Prior knowledge:
By secondary structure, this protein is an alpha+beta fold. It has 2 domains: 26-165, Pnp Oxidase, Chain A, CATH 2.30.110; 174-208, no CATH class. It is built from 9 helices and 7 strands, in the order H-H-H-H-E-E-E-E-H-E-E-H-E-H-H-H. Strands 2-1-5-6-7-4-3 form a 7-stranded antiparallel sheet, with helices on one face. Helix 8 crosses helix 9. It is globular, with a radius of gyration of 20 Å.
Amino acid sequence: MAAELDDPATRIADQAELRAHIGVLHPLAERKVIDRLDSFCRDFIALSPFLVLASADGAGRADASPRGDAPGFVQVLDDRTLLIPDRRGNNRVDSYGNILSSPGVGLIFMVPGIAETLRVNGRARLTRDADLLEASTVQERTPTLGLVVEVEEAFFHCGKALIRSKLWDPASQVERGSFPTLGRIVSEQTKGISVEEAEANLAEAYRTRLY
């Protein structure tokens, strides 16, 4: 199947071929990209409880990771600098490992109820500066690591994807019981833990290890 999907006759091979296939870029789509965080960007980030962080390692292997907390958890340090605090997770640190090899990152900020998103591209570095991280303290826990993003591009993305997906429409939510729990998935995929133990561990993590 993979070989059939790699037909040279149907593949887009370069930028010129891509542009010819898609069509001319609208001037406003090009002009809306700015190199800083203006008041609109700042206000949107202050409202956002969720973002997706995209990164890639030195070999080009890509990764996308969710980040979420109370609205405003991402600090705007100045017009060209963001701080994303590290919250407790599973210690895979895929994104951070990528950034050590290749600092380019892409962020998509989302705000529940707003169809449009904010895209920010730039270069990131890891920090363990205690004074800088102090402002991200929640429930008396200060993160020991943070991600500083130097902004190179920022622009708002139209809401077509979220409108088509009905992401914020309560009627589009699926019943939780229609899909297996993460505990069951981990148990069956790893064969190293029972469903009951995996689900108990997950419930405990959600209850006591968010911060």
